[in-house]
Amino acid sequence: MTKEKMTIGEVSKPRFEFRTFGRDFDEAAYLLSRLSVPVPAKVWERNSKETYIVSKTNDVNNTKIRDGKMDIKTFVQEVDGLEQWNPLMKGEFPIKASVLQKDVFPAFKVEGLPTLNKDEYTLEEFLEMIKNHPDLQAVTVEKERFGYMVNDTICEYANVWINGAMVVTVNSESTELEDIQKTVKDLGIEGAENINYLQAIKRIIGMVDKKLAN
């Protein structure tokens, strides 16, 4: 089978990913800067402010909102400790009640869903429904991301503020498992726990009682 060439900043077929979170990955950041091939200027540094919707009963659907647009990804499989996620739905606010009822709220896997009496809802109205549900929480996530390409895998080092609490994250993603595994080893993070944003956010806000990598 022909190996897919990764292109940073562009869409490919579903990738596998290793990602870890903690307080200090300075050595990995240094190695990323030394091992990376040149990457497009548009991914040198990217900043964003997003809202993640986390659910006490869901770890398989990742919902985030950025610039008034909602993006839900769903967990597909884990192979050799690496996770694969696929797009589940994309929407934009104001959003139709039918989409909330059919696609969005079922993804949270909670009971006691709100009654929808309007044809569509603004972002503010949606977030109010989230606030009023005991098993859901909207979390502000600010990201300062630095892009790299190592061993033909798309990588980043990022400073992340989760409701104002700062952590750092390092990741490597590709359609090729062996390329990710080599990159993780080259960066010296093979002993770190592989977790995704949902899991990290839950630990930071106290929804899950567990530490990050360091």
The secondary structure category is: alpha+beta
Strand order of the largest sheet: 1-5-4-3-2-8-9-10
Uncertain parts: none
Give the overall silhouette. Answer: globular
Number of domains: 1
Q: What order do the SSEs take from the amino end to the carboxyl end, as H and E?
A: EHEEEEEHEHEEEHH
SSE blueprint and pairings:
Elements lengths: L15 E7 L3 H10 L10 E10 L2 E9 L2 E11 L2 E11 L2 E2 H12 L11 E2 L1 H10 L3 E15 L2 E10 L2 E10 L2 H10 L10 H9 L9
Antiparallel strand pairs: 1-5, 1-10, 2-3, 2-8, 3-4, 4-5, 6-7, 8-9, 9-10
Protein model, in words:
This protein is α+β, with helices and mostly antiparallel strands. The strands form two sheets. It has an eight-stranded antiparallel β-barrel with strand order 1-5-4-3-2-8-9-10, surrounded by five helices. A two-stranded antiparallel ribbon has the order 6-7. The mean pLDDT is 94. Strand 2 and strand 3 form a beta hairpin. The protein is 24% helix and 41% strand. The chain has one domain: Hypothetical Protein Pfu-838710-001. The protein contains five helices and ten strands.
